[in-house]
């Protein structure tokens, strides 16, 4: 096993990729390679390995990458079939690592959840609840649970104090399935908020399957954060950092890391809303809104 960075990419279309692929492979279809590759692999000397399932797409991807100036590109010999024949596991689905991570978080932290029928009963009874949709605003706007407010994942702790002034309010975090609702709910719990906080088990997918109606074109968004809310969120973020041992760096460290960008890849991600990012951001930072990170 060689040390150093490896970008493991799969050149097939996402639907085909989802049927079987290597665990940590990122799908970069040939049809979108030019649009995606610079964001995913900005350093031209990174070791890149392409995989496919015998359709030849990996070799075509390599030809294109050479044209973009990438210098260390290879194909997985024999593709996924050879990987499997060697006794290694292949996986189905998309976003497998992040989904697995959320399942581990729920298991280890004991993140509580509520089912779709239970949430419907709470809404119908007029219970003191708040529903936060942790997906991107675009996903929320497309279809959402009645009364839900769009609060993308990285915004939850930031906006909680203004949105939930009472400790008696029960908070439910939902997404399309499970991953972002689990992570969002547990982030709020790690922040030390005293409310009862749960994820919606299987998200809007479960809501649909239960036969409940959704809102198309919902527009509920949080107001601007107040000064009191900002102070509360700063303290809450510090609790999350302490709980999860999250380190911080200063401008000098960021500058030092940027000076090493030819030796190792550096990603600077801005998790604010797209509007905030467009209004001004660090040079070289890439927009990664909280609902998608």
Task: Offer a few descriptive terms.
Oxidized Rhodanese, domain 1, 3 domains, 41% helix, five-stranded parallel β-sheet, 293 residues
Textual characterization of the structure:
The chain is of the alpha/beta class and 293 residues long. It has three domains: 6-94, Rhodanese-like domain (Oxidized Rhodanese, domain 1); 97-244, 3-Layer(aba) Sandwich (Oxidized Rhodanese, domain 1), CATH 3.40.250; 251-287, no CATH class. Helix content is 41%, strand content 13%. Strands 5-9-8-6-7 form a five-stranded parallel β-sheet. Strands 2-1-3-4 form a four-stranded parallel β-sheet, covered by helices on one side. Strands 10-11 form a two-stranded parallel sheet. Strand 1 (6-10), helix 1 and strand 2 (26-27) form a beta-alpha-beta unit. Helix 5 (96-109) packs across helix 9 (179-190) and helix 8 (156-163) crosses helix 11 (227-244). It is globular and about 60 Å long.
Short overview:
This protein is α/β, with parallel strands linked by helices.
Over the alpha carbons, how many angstroms does the gyration radius reach?
Answer: 21 Å
Helicity range: 40-55%
- Please give the domain count: 3
Query: Any low-confidence stretches, pLDDT <50, length ≥5?
Result: none
The CATH superfamily of the largest domain appears as Rhodanese-like domain
List the helices and strands and how they pair.
Elements: E1 6-10, H1 14-17, E2 26-27, H2 33-40, E3 47-51, H3 57-67, E4 73-75, H4 79-85, H5 96-109, E5 113-114, H6 116-125, E6 129-133, H7 137-142, E7 149-150, H8 156-163, E8 170-174, H9 179-190, E9 197-200, H10 203-209, H11 227-244, H12 251-259, E10 269-270, H13 274-279, E11 286-287
Parallel strand pairs: 1-2, 1-3, 3-4, 5-9, 6-7, 6-8, 8-9, 10-11
């Amino acid at each position: 096993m060689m040390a150093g960075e490896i970008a493991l990419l799969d050149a097939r279309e996402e639907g085909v990729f989802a049927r079987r692929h290597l665990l940590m492979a990122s799908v970069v279809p040939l049809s979108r390679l030019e649009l995606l590759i610079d964001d995913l692999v900005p350093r031209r000397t990174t070791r890149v390995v392409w995989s496919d399932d015998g359709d030849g797409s990996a070799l075509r991807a390599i030809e294109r990458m050479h044209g973009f100036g990438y210098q260390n590109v290879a194909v997985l010999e024999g593709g996924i079939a050879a990987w499997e024949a060697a006794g290694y596991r292949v996986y189905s689905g998309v976003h497998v690592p992040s989904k697995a991570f959320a399942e581990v978080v729920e298991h280890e932290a004991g993140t509580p959840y509520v089912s779709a029928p239970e949430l419907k009963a709470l809404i119908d009874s007029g219970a003191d609840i708040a529903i936060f949709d942790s997906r991107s605003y675009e996903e929320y706007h497309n279809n959402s649970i009645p009364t839900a407010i769009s609060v993308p994942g990285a915004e939850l702790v930031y906006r909680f104090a203004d949105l939930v002034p009472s400790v008696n309010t029960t908070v439910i975090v939902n997404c399309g399935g499970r991953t972002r609702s689990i992570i969002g709910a547990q982030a709020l719990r790690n922040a030390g908020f005293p409310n009862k906080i749960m994820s919606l088990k299987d998200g809007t997918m479960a809501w649909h399957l239960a036969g409940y109606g959704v809102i198309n074109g919902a527009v509920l968004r949080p107001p601007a954060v107040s000064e009191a809310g900002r102070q509360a969120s700063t303290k809450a973020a510090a609790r999350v950092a302490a709980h999860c041992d999250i380190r911080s760096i200063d401008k000098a460290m960021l500058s030092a890391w940027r000076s090493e960008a030819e030796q190792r890849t550096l990603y600077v991600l801005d998790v604010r809303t797209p509007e905030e990012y467009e209004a001004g951001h660090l040079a070289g930072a890439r927009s990664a809104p909280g609902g998608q990170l």
